[in-house]
Amino acid sequence: MGMDTSISRSLRAALLAASLLAVAGSAVAEAESRPQERNPKDPFESFNRAMFAVNEAIDTVAARPAAQAYDTVTPLPVKAAFGNFFANVGDLWVGVNSALQGKGGDAGNDLARLLINSTIGIFGLFDVASELGLERHDEDFGQTLAVWGVGDGGYVFLPVLGPRTVRDAAAWGVDYAADPVRSVDPVRVRNSATVVRFVDIRASLLPYDKVINEAALDRYSYIRDAYLQRRRNQIFDGRPPRLDDDDY
Amino acid sequence: MKKLLALAAAACLALPVLAQQAPNEMVQHVTDEVLDVVRKDRDIQSGGTAKVMELVDQKVLPHFNFTRMTALAVGKDWRKASPQQQQQLADQFKTLLVRTYANALTSYSNQKVVYKPFKMKPEDTDVLVRTEIQQPGNKPVGLDYNLELKNSEWKVYDVTVAGISLVTNYRDQFAQEVRNGGIDGLIASIAAKNRSLEANQAKSEKK
Predict the structure, then answer these.
(1) Hey, where are the domains in chain A?
(2) Chain B partners of A213 at a C-beta cutoff of 8 Å?
């Protein structure tokens, strides 16, 4: 019995890997057969499209079903508590990045949030600071590099990690190294926390699935351009200058 | 004749009133009105797309400048299109956007919309109205409207969700279609997308 399951498990894994490779292969072939002008924002487009196809396959068989299950099973207050907990853990790093970008006031606000939520908010399960009017900021090391004037290096799509720019993919390594969840002991708790956070993030994106499916002529481009717009918005803290569109 | 005069006088009185409604008040008024209907209507909550689309069509669209929206989405190629092609593009794009917007509305039915403080100078003709959708257990999502003053009426020409413009996000996709099949190719592919969505909707509503 035990052997059966382990055989069938490895068989399933092999099948999954094979089908992923097939999907990736056909996507590359498709991308290469299409006569295409290079998009200056997307210098690695055929690689990216292949990785996008791999990610879609992983999402369909694993990430989305897990997120849907989590979404149905978990009561709203629990979900809110998870979301708050991870956000609180992240507020220290948000504060560091605010400071690195020369936004001293914001950095003070972020640290005050961390202190208030970790104490009165019971280890960050409740977001008391927001109720008190201390707004949650959205900063990471990629934005800090952008503020420092580092170019984005082009768009890349990676399986599981999803859309990034080269700059933000590199900066994500720094964010990851600074992540408090990474130093959690024992390893089992750390791994569960990592998985719960991933599923929680994927679940928060579920409502967008239908919108993207219905709105996009080409899902790949739609997601790429939405990501690039969103990053620009974050770098300018929600007030990016409108791009030159007065001529139309 | 007297009646006509009275009507004309009433129209004159009504016009400045329309023009005076500040853009942020207009956005708030329309949003509240639409959300009110969405919250009360069980059909809409259970995913009756046709009904929401009708609602959006009646309440929201009169406040949108669709020609400008389509021009922004098409970008540089807009000037290559003949007036007739421009009209077809605007019609097809409208159908596509109404559906997207209607879907977004149904999923926001139990969330709170907060209107951010708004400032404008009396001479401004192009403004940004910022709102925020607050949802328990999730980060708030910014929902912003760009409006311009045209013929003494404020009209929305872009909607931005979480920093993503629903209009300019189409620019590269549309440019790609135009490269492959010209303006007519672009019209055909938006029309095909609309037809397939309509077919799906018919299927799901039969069930």
Answers:
(1) 140-247
(2) none
